[in-house]
Amino acid sequence: MDDKTRLGLLLAQRSGKYEEADVVFDCTAFPTEEERVKALAEAFAELISANPPAAPKLSEAHAQANALQMQIVSLSVAPVLREAGFARD
């Protein structure tokens, strides 16, 4: 199979995914590689600024584990703090 035929098959197989792209970029619109790279970087910068990543959320299990760990630490530290006069019952 020649390269042109192979490329045609790949494009046909992937066209559905390509249609879902967040950024569509026409390389022929820019005469030099430097202009293409600059335009592509600007397109991604616009996409990212319009869709900033969300802060990661802890799963409920992770949050419960963190809370349990904090309780264990506070229970183990409480007697030491009381003995030193920093905490009361």
What does this structure look like?
- The protein is mainly α and 89 residues long.
- It folds into two domains: 3-50, no CATH class; 56-89.
- The chain contains three helices and no strands.
- The protein has helices spanning 3-19, 33-50, 60-84.
- The chain is elongated and about 80 Å long.
Please sum up the structure shown.
The chain is 67% helix and 0% strand.
Query: What is the structural class?
Result: mainly alpha
Instruction: Evaluate the radius of gyration.
Output: 28 Å
Provide the succession of SSEs. HHH
Main beta sheet: none
Assign a percent range to the helix content: 55-70%
Number of domains: 2
Q: Mean of the pLDDT scores? A: 81
User: How many strands appear in the DSSP assignment?
Assistant: 0
Distance between the termini: 82 Å
Oligomer: single chain
Q: Helical region count?
A: 3
Strand content: under 5%
Enumerate the spans where pLDDT stays under 50 for 5 or more consecutive residues: none
Envelope shape: elongated
Protein traits:
mainly alpha; 67% helix; elongated
SSE layout and pairing:
Elements: H1 3-19, H2 33-50, H3 60-84
